[in-house]
Specification:
Length: 255
């Protein structure tokens, strides 16, 4: 299960029942054991979040028999001479597969197919050095590395590919969903002011006051969870945050 830290609370309780040995039935077949099953396998879950604050403790105990912490790419600089060519080889294999599938397509001429089949991503020592120095913890880790290499496969130079890599918004470690919901609720109330917002998140690091709206507009999973707590649709909350951001920008402009 990928991104277990993003699992909403009501589904966490259901997952706990499954992992605890409860019989699960196909929807509409409750009680018919012909369509039921009992989970007795091994559960592997992954996340980049602090699950101790997002996953209920009884479910976490079921998932934490053995914990493996993956170091960030920035902590594995010495691995790049092996890691980067390995990812590049995967990209080349995917390109070969696409080219072979297109071989029988009648509207693609022979020269085009030969061009696609011959395309290769080859990394120099300078490329690997530039990749190793990039701040991957803020630009996507291994997924970000693969994105950058795919851009290089399409013809960009390494610096051009890295400049296009979007910067991820770091998750504030001490902020819970409840605190985010209270802060957003204070902002959206009629007559809400920046002072009221600051009071709601005073327990949290000072920088959250400026980043909370940006966090929710860039992290869709977080926005969905906060919207559920506020009993709003995600689209409605997103629209209100956009309106609020525009109002704050107008208020901050000098006359």
């Amino acid at each position: 299960m990928d991104e277990i830290g993003d699992l909403v609370p009501n589904l966490q309780s259901k997952l706990l029942l499954v992992l605890s040995g409860a019989e699960v039935f196909r929807l509409g077949a409750e009680g018919n054991h012909e369509y039921g099953f009992i989970f007795n396998g091994v559960t592997i879950a992954a996340t980049w979040r602090d699950v101790t604050k997002l996953v209920r403790s009884d479910l976490l105990s079921r998932l934490s028999d053995y914990e493996l912490t993956m170091p960030s790419l920035e902590e594995r600089i010495d691995d790049f001479p092996l890691l980067a060519p390995l990812v590049a080889a995967e990209i080349n294999r995917s390109a070969d597969l696409r080219a072979s599938r297109l071989k029988g397509v009648t509207h693609i001429n022979q020269s085009t197919h030969q061009f696609l089949a011959a395309r290769r991503l080859t990394l120099t020592e300078a490329d690997i050095t530039a990749l190793a120095r990039h701040p991957w913890s803020r630009t996507g880790e291994l997924r970000g590395l693969r994105q950058a290499l795919q851009r290089m496969f399409r013809g960009l130079r390494v610096q051009e590919a890295l400049e296009l890599q979007p910067c991820c918004v770091a998750e504030p470690a001490s902020v819970s969903v409840d605190e985010l919901a209270r802060g957003v609720a204070a902002l959206l109330e009629p007559g809400g002011t920046p002072a009221g917002f600051a009071k709601c998140v005073k327990r949290v690091e000072h920088r959250i006051r400026e980043s909370i709206v940006e966090l929710l507009t860039t992290d869709s999973a977080e926005l969905v969870r906060v919207a559920q707590r506020l009993k709003l649709s995600p689209d409605r909350l997103r629209a209100q945050l956009s309106d609020l951001k525009r109002i704050r920008q107008r208020q901050s402009r000098p006359d």
